[in-house]
Amino acid sequence: MGLPEARGPVSDWLIERLGADPFGAEAAAPPILDDDPLSGEDLHLALYVAYELHYRSFEGVDERWEWDPSLLALRRELEGVFESALGEALGGRDEARPEAVEDRLRALVEGDDGPSVGAVLARRPAIEHIREFVVQRSAFQLKEADPHTWAIPRLAGRAKAALVEIQADEYGSGDPARIHQEMYRDTMEALGLDPAYGAYLDHIPGVTLATVNLISMFGLHRRLRGAAVGHLAAYEMGSPAGSRRYANALRRLGFGDRATAFFDEHVEADSVHEAIASHDMAGGLALAEPALAGDILFGARALGLVERRFAEHILGSWKRGESSLRAPLAAAAPYQPVG
Q1: Is residue 108 part of a domain?
Q2: What does pTM read for this prediction?
């Protein structure tokens, strides 16, 4: 994956910096950030690029940039703006009794009344909308499980064992072809899309990058381990219903198992993970570290907030007859329907 096109002064400063020698001439200070903290194109591309240095990085970028103090300082500033905006939008952290965390999580997930892209696609599937949605989600699904895995060494006992059990399934339980990232690549190929990691980064808007930046931020900070656990628990609890809708939409358009296997897997696996994530992982962590109970709920609520904004953007764009991407997709390769 090559470096993306900049979307403003901050991302331009960062991308230009990454093209240089990390031990070369000292750069001027980054520009002052002036962007929407929850969905701004400049902020969230810059933050996504900074985080990507800890994942697979970019072609031609010196790997020593990962821990460069000037880049870490910029990342800390961007994270502070994002985290503060989340806290303000959600009214701060919750106060919660540790023994009530599991029930509170279930109430949050079941009480979510936000717009549903899956419901719209299942009801009125259209190939151009399915393709756009799959591209939008590729920013996360092609690194699925990786950000949550950072929480493993930060947990102990029951919560750690539960997280490892969930992640083992995410990584295919030893079968490379069943790694969820690889299964998502299969879906993209079946839809005539480019399955290469990061192929559509320039197409994906800031409101979508924010959904990925959220869990990267939670995963990379030990102090946010409770939020990472809450995020994963809510994600697993809400996944089966949405995945079933996406699979049904693909089938209605005539697609077969290669396209639907990723979503079918999440209907089955996440139905099992739901109880492990809520009871053993989140509930277990709350009982082991009561001070993290509020953070666990904050992670779940933050997921709900960014997902709502993501769905509103996509459905609003489609309602206006517009692409939800920054630029419409070029003509895709022929897809592979049944028969």
Answers
A1: yes
A2: 0.94
